[in-house]
TrEMBL record:
Any Pfam family: RhoGAP
Top-rank taxon, per record: Eukaryota
Keywords attached to this entry: GTPase activation
UniProt keyword annotation of Flavoprotein present: no
N-terminal signal peptide: none
Identification of the protein by name: Rho-GAP domain-containing protein
One GO biological process term: signal transduction
Gene Ontology MF: a single term: GTPase activator activity
Length: 143
């Protein structure tokens, strides 16, 4: 799906998701986890069409949760989605911004658990793409 985006949209989405992933590096201080960022940014990335008489508020909330979760997963997996070396990006980031203190490294056991979830992420992402029109409320992906 991402390959179908016009180049400028692809570049913008990549820049945004990588930036939001970097924001999560400092979540201990800023409290902006991928989940929180997904909840905040998903309404701007995925718009819901105006409700029709057949749409209920419960279906809207369910769809909003799915959209938030999809954006959360994109943020969490931005480096994998765009095939960017996370360690190199980390090194370059802190080299370019020497006044910013590096947050503590993530525990290797946690990193291993995150790696295990990548397969689940890609299965969910592919499912969402395949089911693009299955939302109870019509949605517009604004990528």
């Amino acid at each position: 799906l991402l390959q179908k985006l016009p180049p400028q949209n692809f570049d913008t989405l990549q820049f945004l998701l990588l930036h939001l992933n970097r924001v999560t590096w400092f979540e201990v201080d800023n409290l902006m986890t991928a989940s929180n960022l997904g909840a905040v940014i998903s309404p701007s990335m995925i718009w819901v069409h105006p409700a029709t008489p057949s749409c209920s508020s419960s279906s809207f909330l369910s769809d909003a949760h799915l959209m938030s979760k999809a954006v959360e997963l994109l943020i969490k997996n931005a480096f994998e989605v765009f095939n960017i070396d996370r360690a190199e990006d980390w090194r370059v980031f802190f080299q370019n911004y020497p006044d910013i203190e590096e947050p503590p490294a993530v525990d290797p056991e946690i990193e291993a658990h995150i790696g295990e979830s990548e397969g689940a992420f890609f299965r969910l992402f592919n499912f969402l793409i395949a089911q693009e029109h299955s939302f109870q409320t019509p949605v517009q992906l604004n990528w």
